[in-house]
Write a structure and sequence with these properties.
This protein is of the alpha+beta class. Helices cover 37% and strands 24% of the residues. The chain is elongated.
């Protein structure tokens, strides 16, 4: 076979490029110190590397989640310790004011300090972390509590007959008493709120002096107690109820019905009691004439999207007539990241509504006019839940927020329950025995008497202590002291719960650190180059390349022209 110069030249170039390519590959490995730099280096190894990197990315995300959760829980933990410290101060002040030898002026002086502590407690209960409210459930964009006026009475029977509401504000406890204008009724005798002879007097200086320009007005099935110079107005839900009178000149006689209008805190966040409640919000073109509601048990929130209607087996992205066309829709349970598509609802023959089966239950859409669903219309189903939970592993979640009323107490009303079955207004309630409150109904008075039990409702205990101090009520101070002790125990129990979750995060973080180390080791075993072996190969390949260059140059010098 004849070997031509062209064949020689092609072989020289091929051999040089081949040797140079191998040398460059080794050079790339030496610069990156990795054996696998692209899929062609080790296809099966690259698959394993990508799997491990995916796991490693998840681990890093869980570690980030743990850091976030630690921030929330650490803030709450330190905050609850501060609350307990303030309660200890309040207990010391209550103990100072409880002996019978303490004068009215002394209790008034102590009340200034207690009011200051109360305001500090409201501030701590409104703790925010990273601009989000910690104790308001999922309502993280607003404070958990606000200061309001509330009411305590010494008349247990009256407290069982009436609900109430208070409008206005006052920086001092308002003490309200009732008397017979004719003077015929003795101390402790009853008079109806609707009795024209019933008089109202009130004190805004702790009972030193009483103003007699108060009055009771009956209208709309309610009795309104006007207290003109106090800055507040009291509304009672049962105008047929009776009060016990305190005769003129006997303002210190506790046989009559006394009402203390004093401070407390109203919880404005989410509750954890009504877990079956579901909110539905409609968004998109054409939804202004639609109403929607959902029934079922919804764990995550669900987004529902109308895609169009089905015609001859094909999706038509056009307005869908309710009741006469097959609705095609999709839904998502992860905030719109993934969608379950291709769901259909056959016509039901009812032009005004359609029911769509979704994860957890049924979404019903009703029309107020038009009876048409526009493609792209979306409905968001939100199951009421107060917990904010963060994933700390593939199988574990931890709650980072709290329901403030279950720790600090106060007063609360379910926002969905504003009227009873008769259409009467429902008033806010507190409980005198628990930090979890009833959400509707009457009997919402706190009672100040020797038979009243201690409460773990912190804000109610502080409010009653302020009322007792400002009106020189020794028995009320002693009762509030017992409640403060229960409140502090309850707060410390809540702090222990937060601490337990912090410990879970510490354990989870340690496990993730170990998992991250193992994943990095596995990636390294596949991907990283052996330095000694790499340097040996690099030296060998360099010698090979130089040999190819030298031999090629020698052969290329030997040609027929040298002998002619």
């Amino acid at each position: 076979m004849r070997v031509t110069q062209n064949m020689l030249f092609s072989n020289y170039v091929y051999n040089m490029n081949s040797s140079l390519t191998k040398l460059m590959e080794l050079n790339i490995q030496s610069s990156s110190m990795k054996r696998v730099n692209k899929p062609s280096d080790d296809p099966s190894g690259m698959v394993r590397i990508l799997d491990h990197r995916t796991t490693l990315a998840s681990v890093k995300q869980y570690q980030s989640n743990i850091d976030t959760a630690k921030g929330w829980l650490n803030a709450s933990d330190e905050n609850l310790i501060q609350v307990s410290s303030i309660l200890s101060q309040a207990k010391v002040l209550a103990e100072q004011a409880s002996p019978s030898t303490v004068t009215r002026d002394n209790r008034t002086q102590i009340s200034y300090q207690v009011r200051s502590l109360f305001e500090q407690l409201v501030g701590l209960a409104n703790l925010q972390y990273d601009g989000k409210s910690v104790y308001a459930g999922q309502k993280t964009d607003a404070p958990a509590f606000r200061e309001v006026l509330w009411l305590t009475t010494n008349d247990r029977q009256f407290s069982q007959e009436c609900g109430f509401s208070i409008d206005g504000d006052s920086d001092r406890t308002i003490l309200v008493q009732f008397y017979d204008k004719t003077g015929a009724q003795g101390a402790g005798e009853g008079m109806a709120l609707s009795d024209a002879n019933l008089g109202v007097r009130y004190s805004i200086d702790g009972g030193r002096t009483f103003l007699t320009d108060g009055s009771v007005t009956i209208a709309g099935g309610e009795a309104t107690v006007q207290l003109p110079q106090s800055g507040a107005r009291l509304t009672l839900t049962n105008p047929a109820a009776q009060v016990k009178v305190t005769p003129q000149g006997q303002e210190g006689n506790s046989e009559g019905t006394w009402l203390w209008l004093r401070p407390t805190a109203q919880y404005m966040g989410d509750d954890s009691q009504d877990t079956g409640h579901v909110d539905v919000k409609a968004m998109g073109a054409g939804t202004e004439n639609l109403t929607a509601w959902a029934a079922g048990t919804f764990g995550p929130n669900v987004a529902v999207r109308v895609d169009g209607y089905l015609s001859n087996g094909s999706l038509v992205r056009s307005p869908t007539a309710m009741g006469s066309q097959t609705v095609v829709y999709s839904y998502s349970t992860d905030g719109g990241v993934n969608w379950v598509t291709g769901n259909v609802q056959p016509p039901n023959g009812v032009a005004s509504n359609v029911s769509l089966s979704i994860a957890g239950g049924l979404l019903t859409i009703a029309s107020n006019g038009g009876n048409v669903l526009q493609p792209g219309a979306q409905f968001f189903v939100h199951a009421r839940s107060s917990a904010i939970e963060i994933d700390i592993s593939s199988t574990e979640r931890v709650r980072v927020n709290e329901v403030g009323m279950e720790i600090f107490g106060g007063i609360y009303q379910n926002p969905d329950q504003t009227a009873d079955s008769n259409g009467n207004r429902i008033h806010l309630n507190s409980s005198n025995a628990s930090a979890v409150f009833s959400q509707a109904g009457s009997g919402s008075f706190a009672v100040m008497d020797s038979n009243a039990s201690a409460t773990k409702n912190m804000f109610e205990a502080m409010g009653n202590l302020i009322a007792a101090l400002e009106t020189n009520n020794q028995q009320g101070v002693q009762q509030a002291l017992a409640s403060l002790t229960e409140s502090q125990k309850h707060v410390l129990n809540a702090a222990a719960s937060v601490g337990g979750r912090e410990n879970r995060l510490t354990v989870a973080s340690t496990i993730l650190d170990g998992l991250e180390f193992n994943e990095n080791q596995r990636i390294s075993s596949i991907e990283d180059a052996d330095v000694s072996e790499l340097l040996t190969q690099l030296s060998q390949q360099e010698i090979i390349y130089q040999a190819v260059l030298r031999s090629s140059s020698m052969i290329m010098q030997n040609n027929l022209l040298k002998y002619l």
